[in-house]
UniProtKB/TrEMBL annotation:
Residues 17-224 form the Nucleoside phosphorylase domain. It catalyses: uridine + phosphate = alpha-D-ribose 1-phosphate + uracil. GO terms for cellular component: cytosol. NCBIfam families: deoD, PRK05819.1. PROSITE patterns: PNP_UDP_1 (PS01232). GO terms for biological process: uridine catabolic process. This is Uridine phosphorylase. Its EC number is 2.4.2.3. Keywords: Glycosyltransferase, Transferase. Belongs to the PNP/UDP phosphorylase family. Pfam families: PNP_UDP_1.
């Protein structure tokens, strides 16, 4: 069952997997929220853990940064380890002026500058979207937990440091809320495998407003989003 990137054995990974980009965040979630935890993967430092939340088996696996890295790990989870549901729990930068640092964004759809979908040889442009049932449940959970949130379109970019300053601001004109780097390949892999996916994103910075989460806060201060994601585990 081992792959090039995951040393888990058959049955060690739950049907629902939470995927932060940072493997240290995966470790934090496993240690603070799950019981009976064991680490099933340490390949390339991209740790993965399985445990129980309210009696339900769940796994937490780092994805790394960028469309290709998320593409590799989510593909293997969907197609080699029989994961049915992957919930990304990441951070993003606000491109829309109505989005505040600290809010949670539910990615209903995903725009991109990536060429990832070219592999499918489709006669047009594919529009990656979230699983509606997961999205609806996440919104209900956020309301019940009084978590500030917005639902909408996100921009998944292959580029963090843009050569032409201000490019990301153009997406605001189309109502895009935030920029991040992993949702595209997750949603595409889920669609191709006939599985479920949803991206939850905590806004860590904004091009319009001051203040940003520190590196430490990005590892450990995203608990509202984490609790919301864990409430979706079935």
């Amino acid at each position: 069952m081992n792959t090039f990137h995951n040393e888990a054995e058959a049955g060690q990974i739950g049907s629902t997997v939470l995927m932060p980009g940072d493997p240290l965040r995966a470790k934090y979630i496993a240690e603070h929220y799950l019981t009976d935890v064991f680490c099933y993967n340490r390949v390339r430092g991209m740790n993965g853990y399985t445990g129980y939340y309210n009696g339900k088996k769940v796994s937490v696996q780092g994805s790394g940064m960028g469309v290709p890295s998320m593409g590799i790990y989510s593909y293997e989870l969907f197609n080699h380890y029989q994961a049915d549901t992957i919930i990304r729990i990441g951070t993003a930068g606000a491109v829309h002026r109505d989005v505040e640092v600290g809010q949670v964004i539910f990615a209903m759809g995903c725009c991109t500058n990536s060429n990832y979908t070219a592999q499918y040889h489709l006669p047009g442009s594919f529009a990656p979207i979230a699983d509606y049932e997961l999205l609806e449940q996440a919104v209900q959970a956020a309301r019940a937990q009084h978590i500030p949130y917005k639902v909408g379109n996100v921009f998944c970019s292959d580029v963090f440091y843009e050569d032409s300053p201000g490019e990301k601001g153009l997406w605001e004109k189309m109502g895009v809320l935030v920029q991040e780097m992993e949702t595209l390949s997750l949603y595409c892999n889920a669609a191709r495998a006939g599985k479920r996916a949803l991206s939850l994103l905590t806004v860590g910075s904004s091009m319009h407003h001051g203040g940003a989460l520190t590196n430490e806060e990005r590892e450990t201060r995203l608990d509202a989003m984490i609790r919301c994601a864990l409430s979706l585990v079935s």
